């Protein structure tokens, strides 16, 4: 640093430590009063000059310190906002999503807004017989959100009737999570074959930023008229997946139709998915996951297996996402999107936020090399 500049600055700053103050004259005549007035006027001029110098000096020091502190905070938190502080899992019944709904640009844009909020989003009631609606939706999501990369994995078409079949589709951010395996439940349990109208579709995920790291999602959309039976059979699916992949970290999610007239309270004691204490039902019982004002039912659910997974969940984060209220839609406009609200839950994020997704310390070493220089400048 330049010594001359420092000395000059220090002298200027030291002059700011006192102010001019003329002592009043002891005499009381006109002569003394005139001298006193002249002294006060000279003092005012000098004080004005000094104030100007002091302000400039302190402004220089404050601006330099503030700039250096800002640079230091930037280096310590490179792309903090991009790194993100939450990991969101969602399940959304799209209500007959297919070619006709895909033709409505306003509906597709709203779906993109909703789905792009999630790191992983399970879509249900996908009836894309021609295989064009889902790719169009994915493209709309990519066009809407340029900050993430999106991929999807889908089940086969499922259903007992040839005229009505659905698919499960997992849409996920490939820069925050990876699909490491998938499994279509064959519905072949001895003595309980064909228990499901739409057999569960299972994916295994790796999400390094989360506390749980590696976990499984089991998707299920139950048949309303057979909800009790299918929910109980879902317990068998859970046990098979745990054994097959040797994992305890399993989440079950989807439109379970687990409320109102489809799941009578008297039948709940017969559902192992409810009675097993190792299973935690996260969406509050009094939640309304339906769009219609005339209904208030908690159909859509998220359930986690085991205390380890439950501890990896952000407490009280499981809830419906009321897109009608969020996007200021009328009930009619909201029903064009779906007759269900998506449900969601947040997982704890434990990895460093100092780096953007997909980067490392090595990528930013050159930036961190400036930290000692910044600290040295602050101490000068």
Automatic annotation (TrEMBL):
GO terms for biological process: DNA catabolic process. One of its GO terms (cellular component) is endoplasmic reticulum. PROSITE patterns: DNASE_I_1. It is found in: Endoplasmic reticulum. Transmembrane segments: none annotated. GO terms for molecular function: deoxyribonuclease I activity; DNA binding. Residues 91-340 form the Endonuclease/exonuclease/phosphatase domain. Keywords: Disulfide bond, Endonuclease, Endoplasmic reticulum, Glycoprotein, Hydrolase, Nuclease, Signal. The keyword Lipoprotein does not apply. The keyword Nuclease applies. CDD domains: DNase1. It comes from the Eukaryota. Belongs to the DNase I family. This is Deoxyribonuclease-1-like 1. It comes from Austrofundulus limnaeus.
